[in-house]
From TrEMBL:
Similarity comment text for this entry: Belongs to the UDP-glucose/GDP-mannose dehydrogenase family.
Record-level Gene Ontology MF annotations: NAD binding; UDP-glucose 6-dehydrogenase activity
Top-level EC class as recorded in UniProt: oxidoreductase
PANTHER family reported for this sequence: UDP-GLUCOSE 6-DEHYDROGENASE TUAD (PTHR43750:SF3)
Catalysis: reaction(s): UDP-alpha-D-glucose + 2 NAD(+) + H2O = UDP-alpha-D-glucuronate + 2 NADH + 3 H(+)
Name this polypeptide is given: UDP-glucose 6-dehydrogenase
Keywords, in A-Z order: NAD, Oxidoreductase
EC number: 1.1.1.22
Residues the record marks as active site: C263
Residues binding NAD(+): D30, K35, T86, T122, E155, K266, R331
The encoding gene: ugdH
């Protein structure tokens, strides 16, 4: 299959490289000339484990090319994927579909022969209908069918997720698309990954329902964690105790500082707006959004309490800025709200993140300083807060930390340490939902 990938960000680049690895001919395009220039020079513009090797191997084999030439990529393709961003629209929280629609117009102008246009971006119900309408309006002669194929990969484990998905969802309105999509995903299909065909609107909604459910599950355990702190229970044991029930499942039950990232915050909000517009408001998700928004900033209180009720003039070292480990993605990371709140309260913040600092520099308030490692961040600090559980923060040398910090205080927003172990080195410890804990 000849595939054009419009948008070479986290999703477009990973999907494009994986499709090439399946043996398809993939042309990844992007409006951002610097991204394409980097890719053509063998540099990967994002941090994603395993991606560099995958891109290099497939580019060398001639199955994966990069350019800014959208007309050519589209004209040569049997299947065109739209993988552009769908951020929250400023002001009202609806998904901003301007990138999707502009890609649709560009596709319409260059398409030749029968072409399947696939929306891989996360888009609200009905977007496929609009993409269809735009293409027909721009080029009435275009022989195109529009398909929805939402992406479920997680940053940090994206390649594995793409190649070993729990399911592949494909929403079609025209049976001509079915054999084409089966061919695109044949290697996964042969590997018994369930390929689910639905109508287009259902497929679009599956993506939002999945993300909203996961965001709700995280928010649920976060509220249980708050309750644990008040009543002297341990949230990790509660999560273990309920997670063993197959109807609940143990995943996404880790209490923490609130969900963030490039998907959950914007997708939950967009679903809330879609549902309100449709006259079927989803109150559970409205509440999830509100609870999570407040939570991130409120987490600064944990640091204040651990510092004895005041952070003004004190130095707080922050370990981990990205919304989760193994990515450089800073979009809607909880660290942004926590650091801002600490700065508002008069703290000096020194931060370190293995991959996210470059992006973080433009997003954190002025005055925040950056260190080149966990120990330089901790030097002279009154408290150390682990916000993202990168592997390199899982075995910190507390003896060394005790020597270099001004005060031995650890706030562990990801519950990666046991209080006892940290206390042995003379540290005061605060986790999430573990008031007495082990
Ligand atoms: P991104 O911002 O990393 O990448 C989008 C890319 O599209 C950018 O490089 C941008 O320059 C390019 N672009 C925009 N308009 C274009 C156009 N007209 N022509 C060519 N290129 C264009 O975004 P992302 O994280 O890859 O997300 C893309 C979509 O996938 C979103 O809808 C997102 O919700 C969804 N998604 C993301 C993830 C994730 O983990 N990041 C997971 C599943 C789904």
């Amino acid at each position: 299959m000849r595939i054009a990938m419009i948008g070479s960000g986290y999703v477009g680049l990973v999907s494009g490289a994986c499709f090439a690895d399946f043996g398809h001919d993939v042309h990844c395009v992007d409006k951002a000339a610097d991204k394409i220039e980097a890719l053509n020079a063998g540099r990967i513009p994002i941090y994603e484990p395993g991606l560099e090797e995958l891109v290099e191997r497939n580019a060398k084999a001639g199955r994966l090319v990069f350019s800014t030439d959208i007309p050519r990529a589209v004209a040569e393709a049997d299947v065109v994927f739209i993988a552009v961003g769908t951020p929250s629209r400023r002001g009202d929280g609806h998904a901003d579909l301007s990138y999707v629609y502009s890609a649709a117009r560009e596709i319409a102008a260059s398409v030749t022969g029968f072409t399947v246009v696939v929306t891989k971006s996360t888009v609200p119900v009905g977007t496929g209908d609009e993409v269809d309408r735009i293409i027909a309006e721009t080029n009435p002669k275009a022989d195109v069918t529009v398909v929805s194929n939402p992406e479920f990969l997680r940053e940090g484990a994206a390649i594995d997720d793409f190649k070993r998905p729990d399911r592949i969802v494909v929403g079609i309105e025209n049976e001509r698309a079915r054999p084409v999509m089966e061919e695109v995903y044949r290697p996964l299909y042969l590997n018994k990954a369930p390929l689910i065909f639905t109508d287009r609107r259902t497929s679009e909604l599956i993506k939002y329902a999945a993300n909203a459910f996961l965001a709700m599950k995280i928010t649920f355990i976060n509220e249980i964690a708050d309750l644990c702190e008040q009543v002297g229970a341990n949230v990790q044991e509660v999560a273990g105790g309920i997670g063993l029930d197959n109807r609940i499942g143990g995943k996404f039950l880790h209490a923490g500082p609130g969900y963030g990232g490039s998907c959950f915050p914007k997708d939950t909000l967009a679903l809330v707006k879609t549902a309100q517009d449709a006259g079927a408001p989803i109150r559970l998700i409205e509440t999830t959004v509100a609870v999570n928004d407040q939570r991130k900033r409120l987490m600064a209180r944990k640091v204040v309490a651990a510092c004895g009720g005041e952070v003004r003039g004190k130095t707080v070292a922050i370990l981990g800025l990205t919304f989760k480990p193994n990515t450089d993605d800073m979009r809607d990371a909880p660290s942004l709200a926590i650091v801002q709140a600490l700065v508002d309260l008069g703290a000096k913040v020194k931060a370190y993140d293995p991959e996210g600092m470059e992006h973080a520099k433009g997003m954190l308030p002025p005055g925040v300083t950056f260190a080149d490692g966990p120990y330089t961040a901790a030097e002279g600090a009154d408290a150390l807060a682990i916000v993202t559980e990168w592997n390199q923060f899982r075995a910190l040398d507390f003896r060394r930390l005790k020597e270099i910090m001004k005060a031995p205080v650890l706030i562990d927003f990801r519950n990666i340490y046991k209080r006892e172990e940290v206390a042995r080195h003379g540290f005061t410890y605060a986790g999430v939902g573990r008031p007495k804990d082990g």
